[in-house]
């Protein structure tokens, strides 16, 4: 089984590949492809330096999935972290999502400054919503036209986990 380990700078190219594959295939993220490698490297470097909760499922060669909870930047919102995750399609249904989510939540607890984790998910994304409920997230609201891919709008739901 792959390890679930903190995201490191050396993971950036494979993390980008994984993000790109999941974004393109699932259309469940707020993006339909990954940003440039330079932007992903900057994102990883910033979050590693800041010690934000960010983990990857790593088989020693490639990133198979990720999860992170990145605090919002404004001083009045820094106690809130935005959760995101994805697992390569061929690796789903084996508990990696659960392990990644648990690792991020434990790190957010340990970090101390994060008092809530927020997320937004497509309302038709049953596997993700079931996983989030198992991780302790609760439904907080619904957003019509929350996401738009290729000209098609999707309802999203907002979920939160108080630490
Ligand atoms: C949401 C997502 C990250 C879940 O990842 P995952 O690794 O498949 O998650 P898990 O394996 O922990 O759980 C998925 C299912 O497999 C089941 N499962 C877990 N381990 C299992 C095992 N060993 N044997 C059989 N089933 C298992 C879980 O019970 C769960 O079942 P459910 O869908 O009926 O609730 C993944 O579906 C994904 O990447 N989707 C596309 C991107 C996405 O939606 N991201 C979230 C955007 S907000």
Description:
The chain is of the alpha+beta class and 163 residues long. The protein is globular and about 40 Å long. The protein is built from four helices and seven strands. It has one domain (3-162): Gcn5-related N-acetyltransferase (GNAT) (Aminopeptidase). The chain has a seven-stranded mixed beta sheet, with helices on both faces. The two termini are 29 Å apart. Strand 4, helix 3 and strand 5 form a beta-alpha-beta unit. The mean pLDDT is 97. The chain is 34% helix and 34% strand. Helix 1 (12-26) crosses helix 2 and helix 3 (96-111) crosses helix 4. The structure holds coenzyme A. Residues 22, 26, 28-29, 85-87, 92-98, 119, 121, 125, 127-128, 130-131 line the site of coenzyme A.
With helices defined by DSSP (H or I, 4 residues minimum), what is the helix count? Answer: 4
Instruction: Supply the helix-strand structural class.
Output: alpha+beta
CATH superfamily name? Gcn5-related N-acetyltransferase (GNAT)
The side-by-side strand order for the widest beta sheet comes to 1-2-3-4-5-7-6
On the 0 to 100 scale, the average pLDDT is 97
The total of beta strands comes to 7
What ligands can be seen in this structure? coenzyme A
CATH architectural category: 3-Layer(aba) Sandwich
What's the Cα radius of gyration?
15 Å
- According to CATH, the fold-level topology is Aminopeptidase
Low-confidence stretches: none
How large a portion of the residues is in β-strands, by DSSP E?
A: 25-35%
**Dominant shape:** globular
Order of helices and strands: EHHEEEHEHEE
Reported for the largest beta sheet, the result is: 7 strands, mixed
Q: Supply the CATH class.
A: Alpha Beta
Terminal CA distance reads 29 Å
Question: Number of folding domains?
Answer: 1
Roughly what percent helix? Answer: 25-40%
